[in-house]
Amino acid sequence: MRARNMILVMLAVVALFAACRKDPAVYTGAVGTPYELNLPAWVHDSIGPMHGGDIPLTVEGVALGRKLFYEKALSNDGTMSCATCHHQEHAFTDPRAFSVGTDGSVGTRNAMAIVNLGWSRNLFWDGRRTTLEGQAHDPVTNPIEMRNTWPVVEQRLRADDRYPSLFAAAFGSPLIDSSRVVRAIAQFERTLVSFNSRFDRYWYGGDTTVLDSVEKHGLFLFRGKGKCGRCHSIGLFTDDEMRNNGLDAFPVDGGLGTVTGAPGDFAKFKTTTLRNIAVTAPYMHDSRFADLMSVIQFYDGHIQHGSPNVDTVMHLFPETGNILSWNDRADLIAFLQTLTDEGFLTDPAFSEP
Fold this sequence. Notes:
Blueprint: H1 2-20, H2 41-46, H3 59-69, H4 132-141, H5 150-159, H6 163-171, H7 178-190, H8 198-203, H9 213-223, E1 242-243, H10 256-260, E2 269-270, H11 292-299, H12 326-337, H13 342-346
Helix pairs in contact: 3-6, 3-7, 4-7, 9-12
């Protein structure tokens, strides 16, 4: 009986040590000071909660993610960071038609804006990622972008005296690995929220003087015969869906179809947000439209209704002819410009630390 009791005691001690042990090789939880996003009350009522990651936002995690967002050591030759192709003054997109990789390779799709992506389930033009963590992972190893490997990135950050303590503050230990890097970057990206445009002050704040008559007429067109709100619903100004908007009768880029392999997904791309749209030219996944007038002209009489898998919403638009007059088009553009959030584009909390 004594031997049996001794064995039970020893097993209990082993279990206690196992429960208390924090293996830095697997511990990825968040520690630190909770980070409170400064969101207007209407966001909770009209849009709902953000899609969080597997760890909560913390001050330390966001600070680390911000530093990593601007860290050029993520690229193979130390010349590129996330911010190289995502400029704050352009709503964290690239004003170039296509971004250029470290070896001079040119991409085939326009860099997407990073705006309110905490509410998105479809990341990248082709929707191949469903979380911001996944989105943060891919450019590092992409052969036409940063052209690096995660073991190299991890080794560089470990050798940098600044980073072990920052990772310890954000995650509870100085371990640096790819999982923690993308978690931190995703935390920072979830803070890139834009809800303080003139439209917001008019629509949600009740300030009827902040828009002039032309801009108000543009809003009327947006919600009415312009049919823009069918896919760019007020609030986030995107429905986060994957659609073929009829750009080409014979599309070259398969979009979502290249990811899923499903014929019904061919040529479908993400509906982008219209928030800050006036500063995110050029437009469409292939940057074919240089300005907003060109975009509106396309929707008002040039949609390819015979395109494979063309979205049913597109049949509401004319294949030929026009619904909008030139004055209507100008008024609609005037309204779209009210979606620019100047504070977001200049907020020092988002700039390079």
